Amino acid sequence: MTxxxxxxxxxxxxxxxxxxxxxxxSTPGQMIFAQHLEKELxxxxxxxxxxxxxxxxMATLPANCDRTDIPTVGFIAHLDTSPDMSGRHVSPRxxxxxxxxxxxxxxxxxxVLSPSEFPELEHYxxxxxxxxxGNTLLGADDKAxxxxxxxxxxxxxxxxxxxxxxVRIAFNPDEEIGKGAHKFDVERFAADWAYTMDGGExxxxxxxxxxxxxxxxxxxxxxxxxxxxxxxxINSLRIATQFAIMLPRWETPEHTEGYEGxxxxxxxxxxxEKTTLTYIIRDHDRDRFERRKKEFEHxxxxxxxxxxxxxxxxxxxxxxxxxxxxxxxxxxxxIAVEAMKAADVTPKVVPIRGGTDGAQLSxxxxxxxxxxxxGLNFHGRYEFVPIPSMEKASQxxxxxxxxxxxx
Length: 407
Fold this sequence. Notes:
Elements: H1 3-10, H2 28-44, E1 47-51, E2 57-61, E3 73-78, E4 93-95, E5 103-106, E6 111-113, E7 129-131, H3 140-158, E8 167-172, H4 186-189, E9 193-199, E10 204-206, E11 211-220, H5 236-244, E12 262-270, E13 274-283, H6 286-306, E14 311-319, H7 323-326, H8 331-342, E15 348-349, H9 357-363, E16 370-372, E17 384-386, H10 387-406
Parallel strand pairs: 3-8, 3-9, 9-16, 10-15
Antiparallel strand pairs: 1-2, 2-8, 4-7, 5-6, 7-17, 10-16, 11-13, 11-14, 12-13
Helix pairs in contact: 1-3, 3-10, 8-10
Protein backbone atom coordinates (compact mmCIF):
# COMPACT_ATOMS: atom_id res chain seq x y z
CA MET A 1 0.00 0.00 0.00
CA THR A 2 1.38 3.41 -0.95
CA UNK A 3 1.42 6.54 1.18
CA UNK A 4 -1.39 7.91 -1.02
CA UNK A 5 -3.51 4.78 -0.59
CA UNK A 6 -3.16 5.03 3.15
CA UNK A 7 -3.90 8.74 3.26
CA UNK A 8 -7.05 8.44 1.14
CA UNK A 9 -8.24 5.68 3.47
CA UNK A 10 -7.43 7.56 6.67
CA UNK A 11 -9.23 10.79 5.79
CA UNK A 12 -12.49 8.86 5.64
CA UNK A 13 -12.40 8.59 9.45
CA UNK A 14 -14.15 11.44 11.24
CA UNK A 15 -11.70 12.39 13.98
CA UNK A 16 -12.51 16.04 14.65
CA UNK A 17 -11.60 16.85 18.26
CA UNK A 18 -13.82 18.77 20.69
CA UNK A 19 -12.44 20.79 23.60
CA UNK A 20 -15.81 20.88 25.39
CA UNK A 21 -16.17 17.18 26.20
CA UNK A 22 -13.37 16.98 28.81
CA UNK A 23 -12.72 13.42 27.66
CA UNK A 24 -9.60 11.73 26.29
CA UNK A 25 -9.89 11.17 23.42
CA SER A 26 -12.33 14.03 23.17
CA THR A 27 -14.38 12.33 20.45
CA PRO A 28 -15.16 8.63 19.80
CA GLY A 29 -14.03 8.77 16.17
CA GLN A 30 -10.43 9.13 17.26
CA MET A 31 -10.53 5.83 19.14
CA ILE A 32 -12.19 4.12 16.18
CA PHE A 33 -9.37 5.37 13.96
CA ALA A 34 -6.74 4.30 16.50
CA GLN A 35 -8.22 0.79 16.59
CA HIS A 36 -8.04 0.64 12.80
CA LEU A 37 -4.38 1.67 12.90
CA GLU A 38 -3.66 -0.83 15.67
CA LYS A 39 -4.97 -3.61 13.43
CA GLU A 40 -2.88 -2.36 10.51
CA LEU A 41 0.29 -2.27 12.62
CA UNK A 42 -0.33 -5.83 13.80
CA UNK A 43 -0.79 -6.98 10.22
CA UNK A 44 2.51 -5.33 9.30
CA UNK A 45 4.23 -7.30 12.05
CA UNK A 46 5.34 -4.50 14.39
CA UNK A 47 6.11 -5.32 18.01
CA UNK A 48 5.19 -3.95 21.44
CA UNK A 49 1.89 -2.61 20.10
CA UNK A 50 -0.27 -0.94 22.73
CA UNK A 51 -3.42 1.16 22.62
CA UNK A 52 -4.46 2.60 25.96
CA UNK A 53 -7.87 3.76 27.13
CA UNK A 54 -7.01 7.37 26.26
CA UNK A 55 -6.34 6.62 22.61
CA UNK A 56 -2.52 6.65 22.62
CA UNK A 57 -1.23 4.05 20.18
CA MET A 58 2.43 3.00 20.31
CA ALA A 59 4.49 0.36 18.50
CA THR A 60 8.08 -0.69 17.79
CA LEU A 61 9.96 -1.58 14.65
CA PRO A 62 12.74 -3.71 16.18
CA ALA A 63 16.38 -3.12 15.27
CA ASN A 64 17.71 -5.24 12.42
CA CYS A 65 21.39 -5.12 13.35
CA ASP A 66 23.47 -6.49 16.21
CA ARG A 67 24.76 -3.19 17.58
CA THR A 68 23.37 -2.28 20.98
CA ASP A 69 24.56 1.33 21.07
CA ILE A 70 22.14 2.74 18.49
CA PRO A 71 19.76 5.32 19.97
CA THR A 72 16.04 4.66 19.80
CA VAL A 73 14.37 7.27 17.61
CA GLY A 74 10.63 7.95 17.55
CA PHE A 75 8.12 9.37 15.09
CA ILE A 76 4.80 10.85 16.23
CA ALA A 77 1.63 12.12 14.54
CA HIS A 78 -1.84 12.98 15.82
CA LEU A 79 -5.16 11.29 15.17
CA ASP A 80 -7.48 14.27 15.36
CA THR A 81 -8.41 16.95 12.87
CA SER A 82 -9.19 20.55 13.73
CA PRO A 83 -12.55 21.54 15.21
CA ASP A 84 -12.38 24.66 13.03
CA MET A 85 -14.16 22.87 10.19
CA SER A 86 -16.02 19.62 9.66
CA GLY A 87 -13.99 16.47 9.07
CA ARG A 88 -17.06 14.31 8.42
CA HIS A 89 -17.60 12.79 4.99
CA VAL A 90 -14.29 14.04 3.60
CA SER A 91 -14.32 13.50 -0.16
CA PRO A 92 -10.78 14.01 -1.49
CA ARG A 93 -9.92 14.36 -5.15
CA UNK A 94 -6.60 14.01 -6.95
CA UNK A 95 -5.74 16.80 -9.38
CA UNK A 96 -3.26 15.12 -11.73
CA UNK A 97 -0.30 17.15 -13.00
CA UNK A 98 -1.63 20.48 -11.78
CA UNK A 99 -1.31 22.87 -14.73
CA UNK A 100 -1.52 26.10 -12.75
CA UNK A 101 -4.42 28.49 -12.34
CA UNK A 102 -7.68 27.97 -10.46
CA UNK A 103 -8.84 24.60 -9.14
CA UNK A 104 -12.63 24.36 -8.87
CA UNK A 105 -13.34 22.52 -5.65
CA UNK A 106 -17.11 22.79 -5.77
CA UNK A 107 -18.84 23.96 -8.94
CA UNK A 108 -22.27 24.16 -7.36
CA UNK A 109 -21.14 26.40 -4.50
CA UNK A 110 -18.57 28.35 -6.50
CA UNK A 111 -15.68 27.33 -4.25
CA VAL A 112 -12.33 27.78 -5.98
CA LEU A 113 -8.76 27.17 -4.83
CA SER A 114 -6.92 29.98 -6.59
CA PRO A 115 -3.25 31.02 -6.71
CA SER A 116 -4.46 34.62 -6.58
CA GLU A 117 -5.41 33.95 -2.95
CA PHE A 118 -3.01 31.08 -2.24
CA PRO A 119 0.14 31.87 -4.26
CA GLU A 120 1.97 28.83 -2.85
CA LEU A 121 -0.05 26.76 -5.33
CA GLU A 122 2.33 27.93 -8.06
CA HIS A 123 5.17 26.04 -6.35
CA TYR A 124 3.46 22.76 -7.23
CA UNK A 125 2.74 23.12 -10.94
CA UNK A 126 3.20 19.76 -12.63
CA UNK A 127 2.60 17.77 -9.44
CA UNK A 128 -0.37 15.64 -8.42
CA UNK A 129 -2.35 17.36 -5.66
CA UNK A 130 -4.98 16.03 -3.29
CA UNK A 131 -7.74 18.57 -2.63
CA UNK A 132 -11.12 18.74 -0.91
CA UNK A 133 -14.59 18.97 -2.43
CA GLY A 134 -15.05 22.35 -0.75
CA ASN A 135 -17.36 21.07 2.00
CA THR A 136 -14.81 19.92 4.59
CA LEU A 137 -11.19 20.20 5.52
CA LEU A 138 -8.89 17.55 4.06
CA GLY A 139 -7.17 16.14 7.14
CA ALA A 140 -3.57 16.21 5.96
CA ASP A 141 -3.02 17.71 9.42
CA ASP A 142 -2.13 15.14 10.50
CA LYS A 143 -3.27 12.07 8.63
CA ALA A 144 -0.57 12.75 6.08
CA UNK A 145 1.94 12.38 8.92
CA UNK A 146 0.40 9.07 10.02
CA UNK A 147 0.44 7.73 6.46
CA UNK A 148 4.06 8.79 6.02
CA UNK A 149 5.23 7.14 9.24
CA UNK A 150 3.48 3.83 8.57
CA UNK A 151 4.64 3.78 4.94
CA UNK A 152 8.24 4.41 6.02
CA UNK A 153 8.10 1.62 8.61
CA UNK A 154 6.60 -0.72 6.02
CA UNK A 155 9.43 0.17 3.61
CA UNK A 156 12.09 -0.51 6.23
CA UNK A 157 10.59 -3.92 6.96
CA UNK A 158 10.67 -4.80 3.27
CA UNK A 159 14.26 -3.56 2.86
CA UNK A 160 16.36 -5.23 5.57
CA UNK A 161 19.52 -4.06 3.81
CA UNK A 162 18.82 -0.67 5.40
CA UNK A 163 20.18 -1.10 8.90
CA UNK A 164 18.47 0.69 11.79
CA UNK A 165 18.05 0.56 15.53
CA UNK A 166 14.76 0.30 17.39
CA VAL A 167 12.21 2.70 15.91
CA ARG A 168 9.26 3.77 18.04
CA ILE A 169 6.07 5.22 16.58
CA ALA A 170 3.11 6.82 18.33
CA PHE A 171 -0.23 8.28 17.31
CA ASN A 172 -2.01 10.43 19.87
CA PRO A 173 -5.40 12.16 20.18
CA ASP A 174 -6.39 15.79 20.68
CA GLU A 175 -3.39 17.72 19.40
CA GLU A 176 -5.67 20.28 17.80
CA ILE A 177 -7.15 21.27 21.15
CA GLY A 178 -3.74 21.47 22.84
CA LYS A 179 -4.03 18.23 24.82
CA GLY A 180 -2.12 15.78 22.66
CA ALA A 181 0.86 15.50 24.99
CA HIS A 182 -1.02 15.71 28.27
CA LYS A 183 -1.38 11.95 28.76
CA PHE A 184 1.49 10.86 26.53
CA ASP A 185 3.56 8.37 28.54
CA VAL A 186 7.11 9.41 27.67
CA GLU A 187 8.61 6.67 29.85
CA ARG A 188 6.55 3.98 28.12
CA PHE A 189 7.46 5.39 24.71
CA ALA A 190 11.13 4.89 25.67
CA ALA A 191 12.77 6.80 22.82
CA ASP A 192 15.94 8.88 23.12
CA TRP A 193 14.33 11.56 21.00
CA ALA A 194 11.53 11.83 18.45
CA TYR A 195 10.13 13.88 15.58
CA THR A 196 6.54 14.94 15.10
CA MET A 197 5.54 14.63 11.44
CA ASP A 198 3.19 17.57 11.68
CA GLY A 199 4.75 20.43 9.73
CA GLY A 200 3.55 22.14 6.59
CA GLU A 201 5.15 22.39 3.17
CA UNK A 202 8.01 20.25 1.98
CA UNK A 203 11.35 20.92 3.62
CA UNK A 204 10.06 22.51 6.82
CA UNK A 205 12.04 21.64 9.94
CA UNK A 206 11.04 23.37 13.14
CA UNK A 207 12.49 23.40 16.61
CA UNK A 208 11.30 26.83 17.74
CA UNK A 209 7.69 27.57 18.58
CA UNK A 210 5.67 30.19 20.38
CA UNK A 211 5.47 30.54 24.11
CA UNK A 212 1.72 30.46 24.62
CA UNK A 213 -0.88 31.57 27.12
CA UNK A 214 -4.62 32.11 27.21
CA UNK A 215 -6.10 35.16 28.92
CA UNK A 216 -9.71 35.72 29.94
CA UNK A 217 -10.78 39.20 30.98
CA UNK A 218 -14.22 39.36 32.57
CA UNK A 219 -16.10 42.64 32.98
CA UNK A 220 -18.98 42.77 35.45
CA UNK A 221 -21.53 45.49 34.73
CA UNK A 222 -24.85 46.72 36.08
CA UNK A 223 -27.96 46.89 33.97
CA UNK A 224 -30.49 49.64 34.45
CA UNK A 225 -33.33 50.73 32.17
CA UNK A 226 -31.55 52.85 29.53
CA UNK A 227 -34.07 55.65 29.94
CA UNK A 228 -33.05 56.13 33.59
CA UNK A 229 -29.44 54.90 33.45
CA UNK A 230 -27.47 58.10 34.02
CA UNK A 231 -24.78 57.54 36.70
CA UNK A 232 -26.26 54.10 37.39
CA UNK A 233 -25.64 51.81 34.43
CA ILE A 234 -22.27 50.08 34.04
CA ASN A 235 -22.19 48.65 30.50
CA SER A 236 -19.72 45.77 30.53
CA LEU A 237 -19.85 45.51 26.74
CA ARG A 238 -18.66 49.07 26.29
CA ILE A 239 -15.91 48.72 28.90
CA ALA A 240 -14.75 45.49 27.26
CA THR A 241 -14.41 47.22 23.90
CA GLN A 242 -12.48 50.00 25.61
CA PHE A 243 -10.06 47.37 26.94
CA ALA A 244 -9.73 45.72 23.53
CA ILE A 245 -8.68 48.91 21.75
CA MET A 246 -6.03 49.63 24.39
CA LEU A 247 -3.95 46.73 23.07
CA PRO A 248 -1.57 47.54 20.16
CA ARG A 249 -3.61 47.23 16.96
CA TRP A 250 -0.63 46.08 14.86
CA GLU A 251 0.35 43.26 17.23
CA THR A 252 -2.29 40.87 15.96
CA PRO A 253 -2.04 37.74 13.80
CA GLU A 254 -3.10 39.55 10.63
CA HIS A 255 -0.20 42.01 10.98
CA THR A 256 2.67 39.77 12.16
CA GLU A 257 5.00 37.11 10.76
CA GLY A 258 8.24 35.25 11.48
CA TYR A 259 9.36 35.78 15.06
CA GLU A 260 6.82 38.52 15.76
CA GLY A 261 4.42 37.80 18.60
CA UNK A 262 0.81 38.89 18.99
CA UNK A 263 -2.35 39.28 21.02
CA UNK A 264 -5.29 37.49 19.41
CA UNK A 265 -8.89 38.08 20.46
CA UNK A 266 -10.57 34.73 19.84
CA UNK A 267 -14.00 35.27 21.37
CA UNK A 268 -16.37 37.83 22.87
CA UNK A 269 -19.32 36.76 24.98
CA UNK A 270 -21.37 39.40 26.63
CA UNK A 271 -24.37 41.40 27.73
CA UNK A 272 -24.61 44.70 29.60
CA GLU A 273 -24.29 42.75 32.86
CA LYS A 274 -21.26 40.62 32.00
CA THR A 275 -18.76 40.37 29.14
CA THR A 276 -15.78 38.06 28.70
CA LEU A 277 -12.93 38.61 26.25
CA THR A 278 -10.77 35.57 25.53
CA TYR A 279 -7.31 36.10 24.07
CA ILE A 280 -4.38 33.94 23.16
CA ILE A 281 -0.95 35.47 23.78
CA ARG A 282 2.02 34.34 21.67
CA ASP A 283 5.72 35.20 21.44
CA HIS A 284 8.89 33.26 20.59
CA ASP A 285 10.99 35.26 23.05
CA ARG A 286 10.34 34.30 26.68
CA ASP A 287 11.01 37.79 28.05
CA ARG A 288 8.65 39.43 25.55
CA PHE A 289 6.09 36.73 26.33
CA GLU A 290 6.23 37.59 30.02
CA ARG A 291 5.93 41.31 29.20
CA ARG A 292 2.82 40.62 27.13
CA LYS A 293 1.19 38.95 30.11
CA LYS A 294 2.22 41.88 32.30
CA GLU A 295 0.52 44.21 29.82
CA PHE A 296 -2.79 42.43 30.47
CA GLU A 297 -2.29 42.95 34.19
CA HIS A 298 -1.48 46.63 33.61
CA UNK A 299 -4.53 47.25 31.42
CA UNK A 300 -6.81 45.43 33.87
CA UNK A 301 -5.60 47.70 36.67
CA UNK A 302 -6.12 50.72 34.43
CA UNK A 303 -9.73 49.74 33.74
CA UNK A 304 -10.34 49.15 37.44
CA UNK A 305 -8.95 52.56 38.28
CA UNK A 306 -11.65 54.09 36.11
CA UNK A 307 -14.39 51.57 36.94
CA UNK A 308 -13.53 50.13 40.37
CA UNK A 309 -13.81 46.35 40.61
CA UNK A 310 -15.31 45.86 37.16
CA UNK A 311 -12.52 43.82 35.51
CA UNK A 312 -10.97 40.52 36.55
CA UNK A 313 -8.18 38.65 34.78
CA UNK A 314 -7.26 34.98 34.44
CA UNK A 315 -4.07 33.97 32.60
CA UNK A 316 -2.87 30.39 32.11
CA UNK A 317 0.30 29.33 30.31
CA UNK A 318 -0.28 26.67 27.64
CA UNK A 319 3.19 25.70 26.38
CA UNK A 320 6.71 27.06 25.93
CA UNK A 321 9.30 27.39 23.19
CA UNK A 322 11.00 24.02 22.76
CA UNK A 323 14.21 25.65 21.54
CA UNK A 324 15.73 25.64 25.03
CA UNK A 325 15.26 21.87 25.19
CA UNK A 326 16.46 21.14 21.64
CA UNK A 327 19.64 23.23 21.52
CA UNK A 328 21.52 21.00 24.04
CA UNK A 329 20.88 18.04 21.68
CA UNK A 330 21.28 19.93 18.41
CA UNK A 331 22.60 16.80 16.69
CA UNK A 332 19.00 15.63 16.27
CA UNK A 333 18.43 18.67 14.04
CA UNK A 334 21.65 17.94 12.13
CA ILE A 335 20.43 14.40 11.47
CA ALA A 336 17.10 15.64 10.13
CA VAL A 337 18.86 18.16 7.87
CA GLU A 338 21.19 15.46 6.55
CA ALA A 339 18.24 13.11 5.99
CA MET A 340 16.38 15.72 3.96
CA LYS A 341 19.41 16.34 1.78
CA ALA A 342 19.78 12.59 1.25
CA ALA A 343 16.14 12.52 0.10
CA ASP A 344 16.82 15.45 -2.27
CA VAL A 345 14.78 17.84 -0.15
CA THR A 346 15.98 21.38 0.61
CA PRO A 347 15.72 21.95 4.37
CA LYS A 348 13.85 25.06 5.53
CA VAL A 349 14.55 25.63 9.19
CA VAL A 350 11.79 27.99 10.30
CA PRO A 351 10.08 28.96 13.57
CA ILE A 352 6.60 27.56 14.14
CA ARG A 353 4.00 30.28 14.44
CA GLY A 354 2.03 28.00 16.71
CA GLY A 355 2.75 24.95 18.79
CA THR A 356 3.02 21.21 18.38
CA ASP A 357 2.82 18.22 20.67
CA GLY A 358 6.60 18.18 20.32
CA ALA A 359 6.88 21.38 22.34
CA GLN A 360 5.14 19.87 25.35
CA LEU A 361 6.89 16.54 24.91
CA SER A 362 10.26 18.29 24.87
CA UNK A 363 9.49 19.74 28.29
CA UNK A 364 8.41 16.28 29.47
CA UNK A 365 11.87 14.94 28.67
CA UNK A 366 11.46 13.80 25.05
CA UNK A 367 13.25 16.22 22.68
CA UNK A 368 10.90 16.41 19.72
CA UNK A 369 11.36 18.81 16.78
CA UNK A 370 8.84 18.96 13.95
CA UNK A 371 9.24 17.79 10.34
CA UNK A 372 7.05 18.61 7.34
CA UNK A 373 4.08 16.41 6.50
CA UNK A 374 3.52 18.27 3.23
CA GLY A 375 0.07 19.80 3.57
CA LEU A 376 -0.89 23.44 3.12
CA ASN A 377 -3.82 25.66 4.16
CA PHE A 378 -4.65 23.49 7.16
CA HIS A 379 -7.96 23.64 9.02
CA GLY A 380 -10.20 24.65 6.16
CA ARG A 381 -11.79 23.80 2.82
CA TYR A 382 -8.77 25.10 0.87
CA GLU A 383 -6.40 22.56 2.41
CA PHE A 384 -4.37 20.52 -0.07
CA VAL A 385 -1.35 18.23 -0.09
CA PRO A 386 1.03 17.56 -2.99
CA ILE A 387 1.59 13.82 -3.38
CA PRO A 388 5.38 14.15 -3.96
CA SER A 389 5.66 15.99 -0.63
CA MET A 390 4.14 13.04 1.22
CA GLU A 391 6.43 10.64 -0.60
CA LYS A 392 9.47 12.73 0.29
CA ALA A 393 8.41 12.95 3.96
CA SER A 394 8.28 9.17 4.11
CA GLN A 395 11.75 8.99 2.53
CA UNK A 396 13.09 11.42 5.12
CA UNK A 397 11.88 9.11 7.91
CA UNK A 398 13.71 6.19 6.30
CA UNK A 399 16.88 8.27 5.95
CA UNK A 400 16.76 9.38 9.58
CA UNK A 401 16.56 5.76 10.72
CA UNK A 402 19.51 4.86 8.49
CA UNK A 403 21.61 7.82 9.62
CA UNK A 404 20.99 7.20 13.32
CA UNK A 405 22.30 3.65 12.88
CA UNK A 406 25.34 4.79 10.91
CA UNK A 407 26.49 7.64 13.16
